[in-house]
C-alpha cells in the first residue's frame, strides 16, 4: 500500500494501514492480508480520505514466487513474513 | 520503486528514477525496465543517497499475471504499459 494524501489526513490513513499491515518506510506499508480484512481496510480508508485530493494505491501480489525486493541504503522496517 | 530519503536529496533521486521509469505518486515510481537499465539506475542512485540515512526499495514483479493494482481516490499518474 502506498499513499499520497493531504498532511491533515496522513496520520489517519497510516493508523488504519498499521492496524492491518506493516509500515515499511515513508508512505509505504506491506503485508499479508485476508481478503475480508483488505475489504475492511479499504472501507475505513474510504471514510477518512478526500477522494478528490488524496490517492491510495494497492499493489496486490498474489504469488510471491514472482516477486523480489531489493534495497539500497538503510532498511527502515520490514515484514519478515513477507518477501 | 519507493524511496524515503532526506529532503536535500529527494529531487536527485526522483530525477534519476524518472529517467528510467514513471512517476506514480509522492515517492513512488513504476515501470518496465531492462535488467541493464535497472543496474544503471541503481548505480546512479547509489551515488547520490546517503546510505546511513536514506532508503530506496525496489519491488521487482517478474510476472504481472499475478499482480493487480487497486486505487482509492484520485489517480495521480499511471504507466499504461504497466498493470
Kindly provide the name of the CATH class of chain A: Alpha Beta
Main sheet attributes: strand count, strand direction, barrel closure of chain A: 2 strands, antiparallel
Strand content of chain A: 25-35%
Assign the CATH architecture of chain A.
Answer: 2-Layer Sandwich
Kindly identify the CATH topology of chain A: Alpha-Beta Plaits
Describe the structure.
The structure is a homodimer of 83-residue chains. Chain A has 83 residues and is α+β, with helices and mostly antiparallel strands. The first copy, chain A, has one domain (2-66): Alpha-Beta Plaits (2-Layer Sandwich). Chain A contains two helices and five strands; from the N terminus they run βαββαββ. Chain A has a two-stranded antiparallel ribbon. In chain A, strands 2-3 form a two-stranded antiparallel ribbon. In chain A, a hairpin with a 2-residue loop joins strand 2 (22-25) and strand 3. Chain A is globular. Chain A binds chain B through residues 2-5, 24-28, 42, 45-46, 49-63, 65-76, 83, and chain B through 2-5, 24-28, 42, 45-46, 49-63, 65-76, 83. Strand 4 (55-61) of chain A pairs antiparallel with strand 5 of chain B, so a sheet runs across the interface.
Amino acid at each position: 500500500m502506498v499513499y499520497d494524501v493531504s498532511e491533515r489526513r496522513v496520520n489517519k490513513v497510516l493508523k488504519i494501514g498499521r492496524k492491518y499491515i506493516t509500515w515499511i518506510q515513508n508512505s509505504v506499508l506491506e503485508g499479508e492480508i485476508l481478503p475480508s480484512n483488505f475489504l475492511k481496510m479499504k472501507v475505513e480508508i474510504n471514510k477518512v480520505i478526500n477522494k478528490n485530493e488524496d490517492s491510495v494505491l494497492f499493489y496486490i501480489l498474489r504469488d510471491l514466487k514472482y516477486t523480489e525486493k531489493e534495497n539500497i541504503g538503510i532498511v527502515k522496517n520490514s515484514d519478515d513474513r513477507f518477501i
